[in-house]
């Protein structure tokens, strides 16, 4: 059965902008970062700038400061003034204004700021959608971006929306099929992201499904967050020492990606025959991914007790 996409009132999800939405966004900056095509890391919420407070202060991959101003209503001059004040007073390189309803006058103002200042200004519209009884998912649309992006902003906004909705549909169907075979992802909701994940019984290890335009994958993603580089690699190295046994049990070859240049590591099985674009083959792809996930989880769970010993030894050292 195909679910119907419904839009959800933002205030039904986040009743209080300052406490509910700002805190949610601070914990989920990757959702915003994907829309913008940049990396964002949280520094602080409610950062004091004179007598005002920045909703969210973050930094990009180059260490440049980014200010984020939230407004779950029509844009107004007050919030525009705050955005400019924050950005200029702390020497931010990017300024992001999130709203539920951008006024034409403020769209024009942000476009002018991009043309007239060295700061990259973004004006984003926020909506929320759900399919059936799924949890609501946020959708960010770039209304105005830095001047070099303005030419393709319309097509980018439409394409992002279509891709996000298509992912929601893919995950909704995969999870429905998964529930018929296993309870592994039974508590996971569909997402507009290209991945969904669940725990495996040890912090820092996540079993993930991924879907891209022309392929899908099942993976163990190893990342305990900030400061976890050493233990991430130790987990990976231990599992890699069992590579032959794991692949023998699975009767399949895996991609072992230590990723020394990154904090995280992954062990992955790709399914490259079909992807998000091949809607007529979704069921076949989903069944392949689900069946492999069931077997993959079983073998990974077997090694969790030993991985806990690796963790404990690392703590002692």
From TrEMBL:
Full protein name: Endonuclease
A GO MF label: nucleic acid binding
Pfam families named in the record: DUF4268 (PF14088)
Sorted UniProt keywords: Endonuclease, Hydrolase, Nuclease, Plasmid
Domain DUF4268, chain residue ranges per copy: 167-303
Top-level division of the source organism's lineage: Bacteria
Organism placement in taxonomy: Bacteria, Thermotogati, Thermotogota, Thermotogae, Petrotogales
Coiled coil: none
């Amino acid at each position: 059965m195909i679910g119907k996409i419904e839009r959800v009132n933002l205030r039904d999800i986040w009743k209080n902008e300052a406490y509910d939405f700002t805190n949610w966004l601070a914990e989920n900056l990757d959702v915003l970062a994907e829309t913008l095509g940049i990396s964002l890391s949280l520094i602080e919420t409610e950062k004091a700038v004179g007598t005002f407070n920045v909703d969210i202060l973050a930094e990009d991959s180059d260490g440049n400061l980014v200010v984020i101003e939230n407004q779950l209503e029509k844009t107004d001059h007050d919030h525009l003034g705050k955005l400019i004040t924050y950005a200029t007073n702390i020497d931010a390189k990017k300024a992001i204004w999130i709203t539920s309803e951008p006024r034409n006058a403020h769209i024009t103002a942000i476009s002018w700021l991009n043309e007239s200042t060295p700061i990259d200004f973004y004006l984003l519209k926020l909506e929320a959608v759900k399919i059936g009884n799924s949890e609501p998912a946020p959708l960010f649309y770039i209304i105005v971006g830095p001047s070099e992006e303005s030419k393709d902003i319309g097509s980018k906004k439409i394409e992002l929306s279509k891709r996000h909705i298509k992912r929601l549909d893919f995950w909704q169907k995969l999870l429905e099929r998964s529930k018929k075979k296993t309870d592994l992802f039974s508590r996971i909701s569909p997402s507009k992201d290209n991945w969904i994940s669940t725990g495996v019984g040890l912090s820092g290890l996540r079993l993930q499904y991924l879907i891209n335009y022309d392929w899908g994958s099942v993976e163990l993603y190893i990342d305990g967050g900030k400061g976890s580089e050493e233990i991430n690699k130790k987990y990976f190295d231990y599992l890699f020492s069992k590579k032959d046994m794991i692949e023998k049990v699975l009767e399949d070859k895996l991609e072992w990606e230590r990723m020394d240049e990154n904090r995280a590591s992954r062990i992955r099985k790709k399914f490259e025959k079909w992807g998000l674009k091949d809607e007529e083959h979704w069921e076949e792809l989903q069944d392949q991914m689900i069946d492999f996930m069931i077997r993959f989880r079983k073998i990974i769970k077997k090694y969790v007790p030993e991985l806990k010993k690796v963790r404990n030894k690392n703590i002692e050292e």
